[in-house]
Amino acid sequence: MFKTHQIRPKRIINIDRETVTRTLIAGGIGVGLLHAETAKDAQARGEVELVCEAQKSVRVLFAHLAGRAQDPVLSAVSSIVSRS
Question: Which helix (H) or strand (E) holds 37?
Answer without folding.
Answer: helix 36-44
